[in-house]
């Protein structure tokens, strides 16, 4: 059983990215459990002075990431860029440098937007940032879901359902890639040089 933490970069109650994450479980490999994190709105602005004694919301985020075998992060695109709330969460999770709970995780990154490009610019920025932070980002079909409101539906007793078969097929492939990355310790291999260097500085 692998436990996957899914994080949405939007705080909006009717967020398309949150809805997309909630619709992923049926396409996950057998034995993979996806849990959508709630609480990004509890995080204060990142302040290095607070690192020795972080606020409760930060502790909860860090513990959830630490306990997860892998992550899925879905971002909207605001002003052609990554939203500040998501960057703030990644700052808290990746600090202290080379020692944060985010470092070394295997991650699937995706984006969704009601627009025609699916938030691809924010997705490119997110992937680059995650790699710079010492994570293994699963490659495969680019999941930047355009006109996402036409690809999600609602069924009885289910909050959201991914109705587009093409997007569903892409999701299945990248979630399979996430399973393989976790099984093969891909995240640990990526971050080993960084952690070795960091330990040598103590």
From TrEMBL:
Protein name (record): NADPH-dependent FMN reductase-like domain-containing protein
GO molecular function, one term: oxidoreductase activity
Native source organism of the sequence: Embleya scabrispora
Native organism taxonomy: Bacteria, Bacillati, Actinomycetota, Actinomycetes, Kitasatosporales
Domain NADPH-dependent FMN reductase-like: 3-149
Superkingdom of source: Bacteria
A Pfam family matched in the record: FMN_red
GO CC list: cytosol
N-terminal signal peptide: none
């Amino acid at each position: 059983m692998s436990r996957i933490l899914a994080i949405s970069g939007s705080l909006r109650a009717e967020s398309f990215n949150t809805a997309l994450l909630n619709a992923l479980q049926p396409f996950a490999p057998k034995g993979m459990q996806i849990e959508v994190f709630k609480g990004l709105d509890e995080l204060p602005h990142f302040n290095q002075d607070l690192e020795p004694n972080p606020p409760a919301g930060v502790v909860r985020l860090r513990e959830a990431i630490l306990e997860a075998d892998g992550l899925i992060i879905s971002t909207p695109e605001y002003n052609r860029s990554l939203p500040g709330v998501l960057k703030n969460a990644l700052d808290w999770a990746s600090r202290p440098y080379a020692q944060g709970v985010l470092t070394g995780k295997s991650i699937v990154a995706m984006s969704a937007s009601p627009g025609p490009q699916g938030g691809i610019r924010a997705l490119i920025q997110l992937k680059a940032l995650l790699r710079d932070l010492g994570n293994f980002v699963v490659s495969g079909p680019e999941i930047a879901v355009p006109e996402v409101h036409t690809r999600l539906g609602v069924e009885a007793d289910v909050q959201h359902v991914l109705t587009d078969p093409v997007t569903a097929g892409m999701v299945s492939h990248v979630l399979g890639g996430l399973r393989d990355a976790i099984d093969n310790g891909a995240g640990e291999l990526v971050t080993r040089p960084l952690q070795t260097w960091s330990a040598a500085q103590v």
